[in-house]
Amino acid sequence: MANVKSSARRDGGDWIINGQKMWISNGIQADWMCMLANTSEENGPHRNKSLFIVPLNAPGVTRHKLEKMALNSSDTAQIFFDDVRVPGHHLIGEEGRGFIYQMEQFQEERLYVVARSLGILKDALDTTIEYTRDRSAFGRAIIDNQFVAFRIAEMQTEVEALRAMLHAATEKYVAGEDVTTLASMAKYKMGRLCEWVPGECLRFWGGQGIMQENRISRHYRDMKVGAIGGGSNEVMLQIIAKKLKLSS
Ligand SMILES: Cc1cc2nc3c(=O)[nH]c(=O)nc-3n(C[C@H](O)[C@H](O)[C@H](O)COP(=O)(O)OP(=O)(O)OC[C@H]3O[C@@H](n4cnc5c(N)ncnc54)[C@H](O)[C@@H]3O)c2cc1C
């Protein structure tokens, strides 16, 4: 984030924005976006950025829809800004504090993506339990194989541990504490579970798991982004290691 290249410069009472943004969720259908841009070439990367509200129908805005392998109920856009003029009052908060505001917002975003993913992980497990109870092979239900039942029990345990972590972090956040470490840990754990749980569940569906019509194949594709969006697993580990003073 410190390397953001988009810029905004003052022009009378307005701001003129130039640059581009990649991976913008719902960017095609959105009426406006919240955008971080450099407002100074001095002060270093943490104090030279500001947040703006940018109407996406403004002259100079061009949107391009990205084609994804997953999450097709939400569009994702690349957006270009060529001399986009926004009024002065579209600046959010104080000029130069955009980086700090954004870092604060990340705590909430991480908690939100964990909460959202818990629902999908639960659905992957619930539908898999239902299917493996119903489907019989070699004279018994799939779930009556101890390996399958144990693996599902293990995944349920991991998901409940993640839920407990989310609740602990949310309680502290609501109490006004800085939860960067705990929220990053929860986001990391969620990323790992999103890579593991849907794939394990899909396997227990056999050939049916590969079918487009079965929800588990959609979860498998959609949850891949859990380890990437909102900060990748590796970036979460970087933050945790720094916060725990394991690295600088
Ligand atoms: C569907 C979707 C929607 C999104 N929506 C939005 C949005 O609305 N707004 C927004 O701002 N962004 C959005 N993003 C962007 C998202 O936050 C980034 O994709 C994510 O942070 C990873 O950044 P990157 O894609 O530039 O990957 P890169 O930075 O190119 O990293 C690629 C991979 O390299 C590895 N890596 C990177 N850095 C390190 C490191 N320091 N140490 C070790 N390994 C490393 C990681 O495995 C990482 O996943 C969205 C992304 C997707 C896919």
Report on the structure:
- 44% of the residues lie in helices and 22% in strands.
- It has 2 domains: 86 residues, Butyryl-CoA Dehydrogenase, subunit A, domain 2 (Beta Barrel); 146 residues, Butyryl-CoA Dehydrogenase, subunit A, domain 3 (Up-down Bundle), CATH 1.20.140.
- It has 248 residues and is an alpha+beta fold.
- It contains 5 helices and 9 strands.
- It has a 4-stranded antiparallel beta sheet, with no helix packed on it. A 3-stranded antiparallel beta sheet has the order 3-4-7.
- α2 runs antiparallel to α3.
- β1 and β2 form a beta hairpin.
- The structure holds flavin-adenine dinucleotide.
- The site of flavin-adenine dinucleotide has 14 residues, from β2 and α5.
Structural class: alpha+beta
Q: What is the level-2 CATH architecture name of the largest domain?
A: Up-down Bundle
* CATH class value of the largest domain: Mainly Alpha
- Mean model confidence by pLDDT: 97
Question: What would the principal axes of the Cα set say about the shape?
Answer: elongated
Radius of gyration: 22 Å
Cα-to-Cα separation, first versus last residue: 18 Å
- Report the uncertain regions: none
Q: Given the structure, what is the number of helices?
A: 5
The sequence of SSEs as H and E is EEEEEEEHEEHHHH
Q: In terms of quaternary structure, what is this?
A: single chain
